[in-house]
Amino acid sequence: MSTQGDARPDPEAGADEPKSLAGRHVGDRRVRVRRPAVRPFRYRGPGVLTAQAATFAPRGPGEAAAIRLRRVLFGRPLATDEEHEERLGKVKALAVFSSDNLSSVAYATESIMFTLIVAGSALLWLTMPISIVIVAVFGIIVVSYRQTIRAYPHGGGSYIVARENLGTTASLVAGGALLVDYVLTVSVSVAAGVAAITSAFPGPLADHRVEIAAVFIVGIMLINLRGIRESGTIFALPTYVFLATTLGLITFGLGRTLLGHPPTVTGVVAPDVPVVESLGLLLLMRAFADGCSAITGVEAISNGVPAFRRPEWRNARLTLTVMGALVAVMFLGISALALVAGASPSPQETVLSQLGRAVFGPGPVYYVFQLATMGILVLAANTAFADFPRLASFLARDGFMPSRFAYRGERLAFGAGIVALAVVAIAVLAAFGGRVEALIPLYAIGVFTSITVSQTGMVRHWWRERGAGWRPGIVINGVGAVACAIVAVIFAVAKFALGAWLIIVIIPALIVAMRFVHRQYERRRLDVGVEPEVVIGPPRRSQQVFLPVADLTRDVVQSVKFARTMAEHVTAIHATDDVAAGEALRERFRRQLPGIDFVIVESPFRKLVRPLVRYFEHIAQGDGEGVVIVLLPEVVPRHWWERFLYNDNAHRIRAELLGRPGILVADVPYRRA
Amino acid sequence: MSTQGDARPDPEAGADEPKSLAGRHVGDRRVRVRRPAVRPFRYRGPGVLTAQAATFAPRGPGEAAAIRLRRVLFGRPLATDEEHEERLGKVKALAVFSSDNLSSVAYATESIMFTLIVAGSALLWLTMPISIVIVAVFGIIVVSYRQTIRAYPHGGGSYIVARENLGTTASLVAGGALLVDYVLTVSVSVAAGVAAITSAFPGPLADHRVEIAAVFIVGIMLINLRGIRESGTIFALPTYVFLATTLGLITFGLGRTLLGHPPTVTGVVAPDVPVVESLGLLLLMRAFADGCSAITGVEAISNGVPAFRRPEWRNARLTLTVMGALVAVMFLGISALALVAGASPSPQETVLSQLGRAVFGPGPVYYVFQLATMGILVLAANTAFADFPRLASFLARDGFMPSRFAYRGERLAFGAGIVALAVVAIAVLAAFGGRVEALIPLYAIGVFTSITVSQTGMVRHWWRERGAGWRPGIVINGVGAVACAIVAVIFAVAKFALGAWLIIVIIPALIVAMRFVHRQYERRRLDVGVEPEVVIGPPRRSQQVFLPVADLTRDVVQSVKFARTMAEHVTAIHATDDVAAGEALRERFRRQLPGIDFVIVESPFRKLVRPLVRYFEHIAQGDGEGVVIVLLPEVVPRHWWERFLYNDNAHRIRAELLGRPGILVADVPYRRA
Questions:
Q1: Model ipTM?
Q2: What is each CA distance from B213 to B141, B187, B347, B442, in whole angstroms?
Q3: Which among A44, A276, A336, B257 has the fewest CB atoms less than 10 Å away?
Q4: Most A-contacting residue of B393, B614, B657 (CB-CB within 10 A), to test interface
């Protein structure tokens, strides 16, 4: 590590350089602050230094090893100004922003069939009409988002649109719902990706679904901590292979059907589900709601408009339309093919895998198809790893989440959000055994809630702005809002008992928590805020400096040195129940620390903190115009167990004196170097 | 609470009183420290104040209620000089110091029988010869302790004797063994006391043995926290009733036998123990070891010699002899009666209760007898509550246990030791289901280990002192040491598999832990110790004061005020990755805190701590003769959750700067009043 050397004073730094750097800007008055004559800092202007990479040179072999490991895992640190947004052409943009939405077709048809089979396999034909209704809703949403893209060319996530048009509560509803849904996107997508693998390679793998999924999620987490740019190239391959194979599957499969040789699914053990329910409205609603998982991810493009080449909004709109058309075609095609080929939902093999085997045969094309399916599903999860931390950072910047979510680490990634998402997603997967069909009922409620809020926000937006095209805009977004609201209600009713209640509890809880966090920050702001017009002048009040001491130790000596910089006269206070021992200590102070006053406070009840506190208070009360400064010598422990070995009187004195008028407290920590 | 008023300045304090109190003793130089003109402190002499009870007057209704509750539970606080030792006459002394030893006869015979029954009830007659051997060993020990009392009239606990004659390791062996055994004394005595109750009142009570025992222990703990004086009166009643009834039982029972009408135990279901073992040496050894529980508590008088009336050692010796004779008579008598009356060990009813019923009949005398048995057993546990904390305080004062064990609370009781003993004893009871026969195998190993060490120490003592009577002394204590060592080895072998291994593991572990604690205190002493001849002079090195700031908030303003007491020129350092925001903050400082220098350290990698640390280090390196003082403004959180909401940069800066040459760090905590 050549940077190690940079930490030492630079011998090349010339003597003719200005000695005071920090002092330069103060004009008439020269502060004896020298410029650090080494490369860790670069002089940038009056009173401004820039820390160079050498500032972070490791200290000691342990830290060097840790840094090396971090470099290997995550790459070198990136400066803030090294960030650059890759502008995406439409082809790459489709890959980057559509993987979530496109990949949904891998499980949407199956989700409908899993629900319908409860009423008997004879009713599986209903998959087709339900799919058509879903595509119709999807169409409405796509058209609505075309409006949003136009109106918010700098990125119109639901949270932003809601905050700007509907106020805080609506924005938190959208934000909370989206956070929950991003978690579920990761869980569902990775679970479905693992299902694609275990379908292609049946056997013992299926028993380790959760573990495999967790490895995937940790891998995605590490890649995102590395701060991967949303590089179109990485995304393009699996996306377009998936598109090509899926469209090929549909064309080839339906083509064979038209020619009179429909493909037939074989070797699938249809699940031995007893007909537990007759067909009813609720079941239809539930099948519809489950199928709506095909719509998730549609909002991604409107979030990412600024990443498109100019004219951004026009290119984004076009890409959205293409994506919508592709999803519609694939979804309807897969649903049709599933019915034609006689696929049936099975915990062992996905419907898409059944179709792949039936159409392509169990050859290499089938395996490529399965791998591409897994690939695009993992990319979909990766999309959530970009969206969740970004949304969390918005919320943190607005004070609704802990500020660390707004902090970008060495690689410019929002580390806290990335790690939090991975942890929660793995926990959810584990809780539901990694089964896609168990997670689906929880899914998409958040998406539809947030789309509803966002479309409502757009209606408000058009009404307020009344710019060009506001009339059609308000109609389109109004229809979108109403449609999504209806879908959201259907979701809540149909899936309530199946787990949706959990989401319906969690989202408000999250909102309450975010409001609580916000209130905390507000309160702190009130506690420590300084009015912008107040001028704090230089007058120095007279001060007395006191040190509570238990013995004459190095930490006390350090504090005495400290105290002597503040006042001529320093008083050591010794509380004890043994006055004779106290007098011996006074004698020692007289001999070893000449010039320090020494007061013994005898405490016949052996408690030492309260008498000291009372003493300082009374000094402060008696001396109205002055300040009582209490310095607390503190030996900093080296190990956690030391707190069982020593009393904590310094902290207790500090806690009691804090905030009392006329008293300033300071800890003076000591640790032997 | 009339004391509340005392906290305010006393209007009666005359203006003619000397204004400076703390300053009085400094002679030529007058410090502007006024005497707190209120009654919380009493002036005692130059530079010495005594805190009065009013110092502890409550603040606010919450604390007042807490204090009232504490007063009710534990009584008013006692000043250190309020302690007085009650001098005990021989009659009361026997009650105070003998309860542990006397009470042992309640379970000793039964313990032997529980072991012998394994080889068949035909062999129960061996109880008698084993009892006789035990009484012989007991006699040797009593005679040995008569020597100890003579040699250590100020109290000769095993730990003290071992420390003074055999060195640290032996003293820790004795100390660790005794600590373990005091815990078991509480567990065994309380379990046996509960057994006396459940024998007299059979039924559902037996299912709640552990809960009842825990209530007893908590009760004894509270009484001891109240700091009960070892009042002879409280002890006398149960002790003498127990003595009277037990001696009556033996006289009456054996008398009836001599007259040809032996009492007969009825209604006891002899335990259906299959003969699992034939009689062997190991079984005999085990029965002997279990019976040796009769010897526990014999050392109590030698610990407490100073509490006797003058001449202390002579009275103590006499009391010891009487106690020994009583235990011998009762133990042999009970063993004989148990065989004559055909008692058999039973989990439902104690042997002593069987004998009581057989001799007294199920009338009031029987119930008095059972209650007295319970009473003396609880008193025995209470003895351990005096011994354990005292021994722990010796160990703490010598640095082998955390110092809080040496701290005496409001009521002069060693609170930490009392609470620790109760917690551990309840845990042990719970782990062994509250059954006496399960605890007995663990018991008495510690006692015999510590007696062996202490008698060996006495041998060494005689050899070194060679005072009057050293020759018979060395023989007596030598025989005692050898006898106890043999017993201890028999214990370890015979009871090893039955649980003694646990004790044999725990005692060395405890010694290792105590040595560890001692090493920690030694290391701290080296870390912070100041050589007694060093004089720390008054020279004031030039200093520069820096404040890392994130914003202009009240905590920063407070720290700036603080800093201005230390130096003309104070520099605020702002680390940021956003120089524009930094310049805005500089402008705010210029306007609102005129005269404060302001340096921006730009950190392009967004980490803020390391650049600041490097900056201070380089200032310190460049300014060889001066001191760099870094003040860290710190907002003290009000709630635990706030640590999730704010970064902890101040503490991280502090941790990195601590102990670096030329740099002094201080926290300046802020909390709004």
A1: 0.75
A2: 31, 8, 16, 18
A3: A276
A4: B614
